[in-house]
Amino acid sequence: MSVKTKGITFGPVEKNIIVRDEWLTDTHMDHFQRLLASCSNYKLVETWRIQLVVDTIQAVSKDTKHIQILHSASNSLDGHWVCNFYDRKNIFIYDSLNKKILHNQHKQFLEKLFPTYDFEKNPVKFPTVQRQPNNSDCGVFAIAFATSLLFNIKPNKEKYEHKLMRSQLIKILYLTNFERDRQKVVSSRKWLYNKRYYEKNPVAIKNIFNKSDIKNNVEKQLEAEKIVRRCMQIRDKYVRDMYN
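The line above is the sequence of Ubiquitin-like protease family profile domain-containing protein; the predicted structure tokens follow.
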């Protein structure tokens, strides 16, 4: 089975790369970016353009939020994917290696994308995120970070279920209509949250969900789980403090 998004074919070869825990390629990243763009107002730049023809990149308005997968490499064997986010005020890079260093290739791209941004007065920020446990999952985490940001969730506040990330990624990339199916795929709690919070508190989550005035059911569900998770964290801390 193969699926296409505006000229990009995602077939068995690409799927096997994910299954075999290998490093994700431009095809995977561009396919995901086009799926993300199809269900949002984000206009992501193709990864080949970032790497090869930076001068053709069109600037993003300073009043427009932006999500972008970025690539860097010093040779053909050490490529690395990160997720970039602009919230109209600050530029963030979510890096699963937590290097916290602005790569020259990233800097060159960001200066083209945000020509009016003052990088000296307001340097790029590098929030500490969940670290990849191997040498091949940078792309998987970059996509996970972008997925969280799509739903206004800060990646540095999340704990991802690593063992489920690649199987969930296959489901997302094989969708032919991302907007129609994102509720049953992207909102999977196993993808975004530690499952112990929602499995042990279904009633609390349901009550918050029913009282929420958020219109989008996916965002409403995620917000309900987020509130319950935070309450659990506060309770656990209180219990620990009592016995310390």
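Note on the example: The first strand starts at residue 3 and ends at 5. Strands lie at 3-5, 8-10, 66-72, 80-86, 91-94.
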